[in-house]
Each structure stands twice: as C-alpha cells, then as structure tokens.
Write a structure and sequence with these properties.
alpha/beta, 23 helices, elongated, binds adenosine-5'-diphosphate, binds zinc ion
C-alpha cells in the first residue's frame, strides 16, 4: 500500500505551502485516504481544519481539484487566501464577465489551475460538466470536494436543492476521489448526505465535536440589548464578535444601538446592498475588534480565528444551527464565549411560525422536534456541553466545568401548583370562543392586575383571578416559558400566538405530572455577568 508515501507528499505540502508543522486531529488520516484515491466523508466542527483536508490533496495530486462551495460571496476570499500561499486557485461563478470566464477556462484546459471553486448551481450545468470532462481528459481532476455537504440533506437546517445534482459525479468521474465535508453532525444528516451524494464506499471520519475553549451560557431574556451591552462591556470590550438576531430590522436596530454605545458594530443581512455587505464583511475580517450584528446569512465559511464571542439575542431554530453559529467563536483555541438570551416570546413566536409554516405535516413535525431540542438545551439544569454533544451522538464522560450550569448549578423548584393555576386560566379563556389571549393577559389575570383589557373582557370575574399574586410577573413569565418549552402548554395554529392546552397539560391539571422548574433569580436575568439563572 502506497499510503505512507502519499501522506509524506501531503506533509510536504502542509509544510512548504501552508507553513504548518503537523496535521491536526484526523487531518492526516483523511488526507491519506484521499491522496490514495479513496472517498471520504468528514464531520468536523467549525474551526477543526476542514479546508486543508481537500486543499492538500488538490495540490499534492496530479490535476485540478474541484471545490463545490455554496456561497459565491466567499469564493473570492478563499481564492485570494490560496493565491497568497502560492497556489493556483480560480473560481467560476455568475459574478464574472465572459472574458474573465474564458480566461479561467483556458487556464483550466492548459492544466494551470490547482483548485477551482464552483457553486453547486454552476456544477449542475451540463456546459460546466463538459468543460470539466475536458480538463479530466487533459491535465486530470485531482479531487472533487463538496464543502458544507449538509446542504444536500433535505431535512437539515440549510437545504440547497442544487446540491442534489452532485450525486452523480462519482459515475461521471469514477477515478476521481470525492470528499464531502460538514460541521453538522447529527446521525440523520450524516446518513442522508452519504446516501444523496452516493458515497457508499467512502471512509467516514467523525471528529469529536467538543470545543472546550468555548464557554456556553444561556440567560433568561429581559432587556436583550441592555443585557448584550453589559455582556460585551464586562467581558469582551474591544473584542471581535458576532451577534445573531432573527430579523433584518432587529439586526439594524441592534447594530445602531451598540454603535451609539461606543462599540464598533456593523450590520449584515441579505437585504443590505451587496457592496455594503461586502465592505462590512471585509472590515470584520481585517480590522480588530469589530462586532458583526447579523442574521444567520452571515458566517458560513468565514475564517476569522480570533472571534472571541458569539451572542444570540433570539433563539436559534435548532441545536445544529446553534452549534454551527457558536462554533465560529475561538477557532484559534483561546477562551471564547457563546452567549444566548432567550425568553418567552422566542418560544411563542417560533411555535407560531412552525404552526403557520408552508410545507407538509412531516416538515412541521421536523421543525418542531428541532425547536424542542433547542428548548431542552435552554432549560436544562445539567451541563450544556454534555447535552449538545449527546445531541450529536457523542458522550462527554464528566460535566465540562466550562458552561453556566457547571459553573453555578441551577436550583430547581416544584412548580406543579403554579402550573395548575396557569393551565386552569388557559382552560377558562379557551372556553371564550373567538377571543385570543397571549401570555401577558394570562399573567395579568393570575396576578389580579386590573387593566383596560382585563376589565373589558370581564376577566376579573374569572375563578382564577388573582390566585397567582404570590409570584412576581417575571416569575410567571419564567413558569409560562418553561411550560411551553416542556410541551405542557401549546401555541394554537391561529397565527396569533394564542396559548392552548397541549396533550401534556391534562397530567398537570390532574396532578399526575409533577412540574420541575428552574429557579431564576431576577438579578441573574438582568446582569449578564455570571450568566447563570
Ligand atoms: P473549518 O473549515 O473546519 O471551519 P478551517 O479549515 O477554516 O476550519 O481551519 C481553521 C483554522 O485552523 C484556520 O485558520 C487554519 O489555517 C488553521 N489550521 C488548520 N489546520 C491546521 C494545522 N494542521 N496546523 C495549524 N493550523 C491549522
Ligand atoms: Zn458544563
């Protein structure tokens, strides 16, 4: 077997081209597999060093390596970075004019390209495939790399239909090794991508997904911008970071707010002018201490080693998304923070979005299961890292010691009676057909708070009026949120976020289900400091 010699060539490229001394983690084994002509599936966390796994085979083997990458916006950066180390890298995409495209095509046919980046929709075109057939027959193709390969999984969090066309490349160029890479690692996604890309004989390389230098913290949301500000000021003043928000509007407002408070914050979302987006991205990459406030449109493929924190001011839709986004912190291995503020409205809003979303019932169930896992992570009293890794099918023997629940073990309390009071109120409101009430009204009723809305609807006559005056409003919000998170209460599919009983509610009302809740001190909710609640 020629493997050791092949790997020797890989090591030589690692040193001479990239200037690194040794392979990291499984890089050596992966590169050995591909250099030897075999296929590979690589599951490695963000920052793990996936790029070299295909760049080195592309450089060390004869011919051109084809790299499928989903984001045109990033190709330019990737190609520049490779050129800076002397590799002959090019891309083909829709931003090029025909003169530029034909220059690249000529270079390809002349065997002068080590790495070619292409978007999946371009590789789906028969004209591109024919061009690459010719390259294959002339100088040869060294490897086909499929980056962000989870995009082929229909049930994943990032599905791109164009990825489905990549399944037949193995038949088209049977002698060219293929390598599929992703930082998304659930069993389901893993199986689906192997199947759809028809990588039946590939060797699978599953790295540990643990990122020990990232501290995970989830705090109850109170006044998210203030909380975010004090988190940044107290712990990451002057550091580079990413703040994720759900909507474009919230991105812009948060960026403005932070900038007004003296933080170098820039917005990024798909609705911004392409030039503004590119300028903000390059400032983030090149300047020190920029805080990028962004929707999840930002980040994939961004390689900035010293991002010191990733903050979410809205709840991510899945643990996969959360882990991929937080994984953009601390690629350099130095201590970093993943901070999330999460509240009642997040749950209501996301449940409502799922209930009213397009797509069939199976799709909604899938979204719902994703959200449930995310909520369970938010509400857990156990080690967060352990829970995330378990979600990806990996075990952590001991609690990590570097997440908020490890640093300060949350207390729990028996919330059965308050839960019964709350659910009884929902029952009574549900009987008033045609009226829609969210959490605020329910809490006002429980606390016996007279408002125009409670008076107008005669809610002060309800049997549950004022029976919950022993808890503060903030505490009730915590109860409500946790009941929703645990599925003991539901959001109706009426598009208004009306709260209704769930299947689990009956057990609580009858007393057969005990409700255990996290204790949240109002102080912890306000100060981002210790982050525990
Ligand atoms: P991923 O694509 O898995 O998120 P990258 O390929 O961008 O990760 O690598 C993350 C960082 O680690 C990059 O800055 C890269 O240069 C660096 N890196 C990768 N492999 C090695 C290595 N063997 N030695 C030193 N640094 C490495
Ligand atoms: Zn922990």
């Amino acid at each position: 077997m020629a493997a050791p010699i092949a790997l020797e060539a890989g090591l030589e490229t690692l040193r001479s081209t990239f200037g690194y001394d040794a392979f990291r983690g499984q890089q050596g084994e992966i590169i050995d597999q591909v250099l030897g002509g075999g296929d590979a599936i690589v599951l490695m966390p963000t920052g793990g060093g996936k790029s070299l796994c295909y760049q080195i085979p592309a450089l060390a083997r004869q011919g051109t390596g084809v790299v499928v990458s989903p984001l045109i916006a990033l190709m330019h950066d990737q190609v520049s970075a490779l050129r800076a180390v002397g590799a002959r890298a090019e891309f083909l995409n829709s931003t090029q004019d025909s003169a530029e495209r034909s220059r690249v095509e000529q270079a390809l046919l002349a065997g002068q390209v080590d790495l070619l980046y292409v978007a999946p929709e371009r590789l789906a075109l028969e004209s591109t495939r024919r061009l690459l057939d010719n390259v294959h027959n002339a100088g040869g193709l060294s490897v086909v790399a499929i980056d962000e390969a989870h995009c082929v999984a229909q049930w994943g969090h990032d599905f791109r239909p164009d990825y489905l066309t990549l399944g037949d490349l193995g038949e088209r160029w049977p002698d060219v090794p293929r390598i599929a890479l992703t930082a998304t690692a659930t069993e389901a996604t893993h199986r689906e991508l192997a199947m759809r890309l028809r990588l039946d004989d590939a060797k699978h390389f599953v790295s540990s997904f643990d990122r020990p230098n990232i501290q995970y913290r989830i705090v109850p949301k109170d006044d998210p911008r203030r909380q975010l500000l004090s988190f940044i000021k107290n712990e990451h003043d002057g550091d580079a970071g990413i703040v994720y928000a759900l909507s474009r509007k919230s991105v812009e407002q948060t960026a403005e707010f932070l900038a007004a408070q003296g933080i170098k914050a820039l917005p990024y979302h798909a609705g911004l002018d392409a030039r503004v987006r590119a300028a903000n991205q390059s400032r983030f990459l090149r300047d020190d201490g920029i805080v990028m406030v962004a929707t999840i449109a930002f980040g994939m493929g961004i390689d900035k080693p010293d991002v010191r924190f990733v903050a979410h001011i809205d709840l991510p839709k899945s643990v996969e998304g959360y882990y991929q986004e937080t994984g953009r912190a601390g690629r350099d291995g130095l201590p970093s923070t993943a901070w999330l503020a999460y509240g009642l409205n997040d749950v209501v809003q996301q449940r409502r979005m799922i209930e009213t979303s397009e797509g069939d019932e199976a799709h909604r169930r899938r979204l719902s299961a994703n959200l449930d896992a995310m909520l369970a992570l938010c509400e857990t009293v156990d080690c967060r890292r352990r829970q995330v890794l378990a979600y990806f099918g990996q075990n952590l023997a001991e609690p990590c010691g570097n997440c908020d629940t490890c640093i300060e073990k949350p207390e729990t309390w028996d919330g059965t009676v308050p839960a019964q009071k709350l659910l009884s109120t929902v029952v009574r409101l549900q009987r008033e057909r045609g009226q829609r009430f969210g959490g605020g009204q329910i809490i006002d009723i429980l606390r016996g708070k007279t408002t125009p809305r409670t008076t107008q609807h005669g809610h002060d006559k309800l049997a549950t009026w004022g029976i919950g005056s022993d808890l503060a409003e903030q505490q009730w919000r915590g109860v409500l949120r946790q009941l929703l998170a645990q599925g003991l209460l539901a959001v109706a599919d009426d598009g208004y976020g009306t709260l209704v009983l769930s299947e689990g509610s009956a057990g609580v009302l009858s007393g057969s289900t005990k409700v255990e809740l996290r204790k949240e001190s109002p102080k912890a909710a306000r100060s981002a400091g210790s982050g525990s609640a």
